[in-house]
Design a protein that fits this description.
A hairpin with a 2-residue loop joins strand 15 (about 220-225) and strand 16. This protein is an alpha+beta fold. The chain is built from 8 helices and 24 strands. It is globular. The strands form 2 sheets. Strands 2, 3, 4, 6, 9, 10, 11, 12, 13, 14, 20, 23 and 24 form a 13-stranded mixed sheet that branches. Strands 1, 5, 7, 8, 15, 16, 17, 18, 19, 21 and 22 form an 11-stranded antiparallel sheet that branches. GO terms for molecular function: isochorismate synthase activity. Belongs to the isochorismate synthase family.
Length: about 425
């Protein structure tokens, strides 16, 4: 189902110019109403307002979005005086994990401010240029209380044990199981509060917000830029202790863990297989590296390629989704098992989230370390890769570690 709820009735008039904002953090510009963001290490894109918007759902959600975006781009009148990836006409998107349930959204902000390599620009879409001044500091959530989501810890461990049994019986090789946590608040959340804290604490991740979905993802599903494509694969996790010496030893343990290496191999293989039809050449490292984040460490591999066809970044994201890192192996068996035993709707958790420009270049992350703003609060998500050697108690502890970024971001200073 496709609903262009704010479809442009006339061609979008787009203008991008360079601006001098010195060292002003981009998140400081965001107003409370309709903000979007995609930032890493202080660079990226923020925006606000809605010039055009598409809502879609079901198995055609990606192709619906590609068609709508192509038509919107074709009708736009663009003056781009900067010429960087992310300038000119840009859309932000967030897509449901599964065909059902969950809506997917593609939105064109009225105002976008971008920064890359110290260069900052302003894009306006059919509106006058705004006064780029810092917005008032957002307020923290009031009356924050956490409670179990669809399943409590014991119930979720039982689900993990069921999955291990299915894997041991030969039904599949790996499945990723998720759980949720509910945070209630006395007043509606100002999403700029957790965004600022996530950007500060997890600067190596991509801090995002699109249509109520926010988080700080460490995993780049796909980046397409001027003919080059990159995908960062994460699978295999260990929790940090806060002791540098102990954490270095744990990193070495993770790099040798047969369980985690097996899980990681499935994920890398699924990404490489999905990208290969679109690439004339590819580089797939033989061994992963350990990515150190404030709360956990991951086995990570960067897969790179040269695109030889006209596939946009969103089309590449569709071909990759769901990878083994968020679904499992084989994909069909894993997603069927998720639907059977996980016991909750994922909505947009673990789906693609990111942006795309008029050329089709863009960046799409996987909506991990994420949460969805709901009536009365926030719904947090965490997932773990389950293989034959998985231990339910250890997986529960890993899921709790993955809640930490968003959970901590909601608290007061």
């Amino acid at each position: 189902m496709t609903t262009p709820s704010s479809a442009p009735t006339a061609p979008l008039v787009v203008r991008t110019v360079a601006v001098d904002l010195a060292d002003l953090p981009l998140l400081d510009l965001l107003p409370a109403q309709e903000p979007v963001s995609w930032l890493r290490r202080g660079e990226g894109l923020v925006g606000w307002g809605v010039a055009a918007r598409l809502e879609t759902s079901g198995p055609t959600r990606f192709s619906d979005a590609v068609k709508w975006w192509s038509e919107t781009v074709a009708r736009a009148e663009v003056e781009d005086l900067v010429g960087e990836p992310g300038t000119g006409l840009v859309s932000f998107g967030t897509f449901a994990f599964a065909d059902e349930p969950g809506d997917s959204v593609l939105v064109v902000p009225q105002v976008v401010v971008g920064r890359r390599a110290g260069r900052t620009w302003l894009t306006t879409v059919s509106v006058d240029a705004p006064d780029l001044a810092p917005a008032p500091v957002p307020d923290p959530p009031v009356g924050l209380v956490f409670s179990d989501g669809a399943r409590n810890g014991d119930e979720w461990m039982s689900v993990v044990a069921e999955a291990v049994g299915r894997i041991s019986a030969g039904d599949l090789e790996k499945v990723v199981l998720a759980r949720d946590l509910i945070a209630t608040t006395d007043e509606p959340l100002d999403v700029r509060w957790p965004l600022r804290r996530l950007a500060e604490q997890y600067e190596m991740c991509w801090t995002f917000h699109v249509d109520g979905l926010f988080g700080a993802t460490p995993e780049m599903l796909v980046r397409r830029e001027r003919g080059l494509v990159t995908s960062r694969v994460l699978a295999g996790t260990i929790r940090r202790t806060g002791d540098d010496g102990r954490d270095m030893a744990l990193a070495a343990t993770l790099a040798r863990s047969s369980k985690d290496l097996e899980e990681h191999e499935y994920a890398v293989r699924s990404v490489a297989d999905a990208l290969e039809p679109h690439c004339s050449s590819m580089n797939v490292p033989e061994a992963p590296f350990v990515l150190h984040l404030p709360n956990v460490m991951h086995l990570a591999t960067d897969v790179n390629g040269v695109v030889h066809d006209a596939a946009t970044s969103l089309q590449l994201a569709e071909s990759l989704h769901p990878s083994a890192a968020v679904g499992g192996t084989p994909t069909a068996a894993a997603t069927d098992l998720i639907a059977e035993i996980e016991g909750m709707p994922r909505d947009r958790y673990a789906g693609p989230v990111g942006w795309m420009d008029a050329s089709g270049d863009g960046e799409w992350g996987i909506a991990l370390r994420s949460a969805m703003v709901i009536d009365g609060g926030v719904r947090l998500f965490a997932g773990c890769g389950i293989v034959a050697s998985s231990d339910p108690e250890a997986e529960l502890a890993e899921s709790q570690a993955k809640f930490v970024p968003v959970r901590d971001s909601l608290g007061a200073d």
